[in-house]
Specification:
Aspartate Aminotransferase, domain 2; 460 residues; four-stranded antiparallel beta sheet; Aspartate Aminotransferase, domain 1; alpha/beta; seven-stranded mixed beta sheet; single chain; 36% helix
Length: 460
């Protein structure tokens, strides 16, 4: 006898009938419909099993925004960012955001009344932005070497401390990655390493403003100066791309006099994450170029099937406009003064936490939160337990503090890291410090032989 589908009766409250007695299939479509309230409750309750995003100190990604921003973003989920003919106001907001980012990074040829003067685009996040910056460098290298490029292998010089998206870029787009190793006590690249690695087939050098591993700022001005001298001595003109995913919305406000951006003539492109210290929910990022000459025309496509002639040079096509709207809200809401105040507050909290961890006599600080609001640290000596034990102990209090090994050249070094974001208050920092001391007390008493030595997930 064939199965009869029927309309589900109204379920109120949620914890009766179907939800209470019958399991809902998770790997195939259910046979029958479910009332909206019941569907919401079913999914809402399962999501309770996630960790608290506010206590996730592993992630750089924003976990709190103003309610007004949330409302604006909810109102614009349905707008397709790519359809600039149908949604001209959203397109104009994107262009303004790109112009604001380009201005923040001192790009060339900007205009106070023409947003299109800025060369850049919003992206899903820094990962897509990285791909676009890398492609532009590869295409410019091809133009420079001419028709013989097919018989040569382009390479990209970067530290072994880069985010995995750079490895993806090299693999996806047939570029040889030349990783510069770290060493115990040094977790950034040096100008000397860069000079030893580059050659006539180098499409560019990647320098990081706020590394994922420790939050350190690489010596971008010194790297550019070394490459300037190389160009003068040997005629090798190697561009620099700055991966400012973590530090691009911090350094201009905390360290405005530090030259790392387009003030350095050798820097040709910069990517930044709006969903990190841009203070916007994921996913939003930007890539900007010094000027239009650094974005090859071959990478720009033009389509007209959405209603008007539209240039596009993103890897992704359709995406909601709400992330750009949320970023624009932050730019207007905070301005330079507001971003400065937020970053100074976060830095103060991070530096306080770093001082407390150092004073506990259990830890050696690697970064103290003064560059960007990131504190990285490791255990002193051989206490009889590992950083992985400390991380696991903090999870029992709800904190997610990652423990991980450092990259090539320093893989014997294990590090703990705390990312201080908006929403991580001074009170929460005090609670984290107290819980850390409690965990250390327990471990000191038990002296386990590294009960949690297995590598744990490394959060972006």
């Amino acid at each position: 006898m064939p199965h009869k589908h029927h309309r589900a009766p109204h379920i109120s409250p949620a914890y009766t009938g179907r939800l209470a007695m019958a399991p809902v299939p998770s790997l195939r479509l259910p046979d029958d419909a479910m009332e909206p309230g019941a569907a919401y409750r079913f999914i809402h309750d399962e999501l309770m099993l996630d960790g608290s995003s506010r206590l996730n100190l592993a992630t750089f990604v924003t976990t709190w925004m103003d309610p007004e921003a949330e409302k604006l973003m909810a109102e614009t989920f349905d707008k397709n960012m790519i359809d600039k003919d149908e949604y001209p106001a959203t397109a104009a907001i994107e262009a303004r955001c790109v112009s604001m980012v380009a201005d923040l990074f001192h790009a060339e040829g900007l205009s106070d009344d023409d947003a299109s003067a800025a060369c850049g685009v919003s992206t899903i996040g820094s990962s897509e932005a990285v791909m676009l910056g890398g492609l532009a460098m590869k295409w410019r290298w091809r133009e420079k070497v001419g028709k013989d490029w097919k018989g040569r292998t382009p390479n990209l010089v970067m530290g072994s401390n880069v985010q995995v998206v750079w490895e993806k870029f090299c693999r996806y787009f047939d570029v040889e990655p030349r990783y510069l190793p770290m060493e115990n006590g040094r977790y950034v690249i040096t100008p000397e390493q860069v000079l030893d690695a580059v050659d006539e087939d180098t499409i560019g050098v990647v320098a990081i403003l706020g590394t994922t591993y420790t939050g350190e700022l690489e010596p971008i001005a010194e790297i550019c100066a070394a490459l300037d001298q190389l160009s003068q001595d040997k005629g090798l003109d190697i561009p620099v791309h700055v991966d400012a995913a973590s530090g691009g919305f911090v350094v201009p406000f905390l360290h405005p006099d530090l030259e790392w951006d387009f003030r350095l003539p050798r820097v040709v492109s910069i990517n930044v994450s709006g969903h990190k210290y841009g203070l916007t929910y994921p996913g939003i990022g930007f890539v900007v170029w010094r000027s239009k000459e650094y974005l090859p025309e071959d990478l720009v496509f033009r389509v007209n099937y959405l209603g008007g002639d539209m240039p596009t040079f993103t890897l992704n096509f359709s995406r909601p406009g709400n992330q750009v709207v949320g970023q624009y809200y932050n730019f207007l809401r905070l301005g330079r003064a507001g971003y400065t105040q937020v970053m100074q507050c976060l830095s103060q909290t991070a530096r306080w936490l770093g001082d407390e961890l150092r004073d506990s006599e259990h830890f050696e600080l690697i970064t103290d939160g003064s560059a960007i609001p990131v504190v990285s640290f490791r255990l002193k000596g051989k206490p009889g337990y590992t950083e992985f034990d400390v991380s696991e102990g903090l999870r029992s209090f709800g904190w997610q503090v990652p423990a991980y090994t450092m990259p090539e050249g320093a893989t014997d070094v294990v590090v703990l890291r705390v990312v201080v974001r908006e929403g991580f208050s001074a009170d929460l920092a005090r609670a984290l410090k107290e819980d850390t001391i409690t965990v250390l007390g327990r471990l000191d008493a038990l002296k386990p032989r590294g009960a949690f030595n297995d590598l744990q997930p490394f959060a972006h």
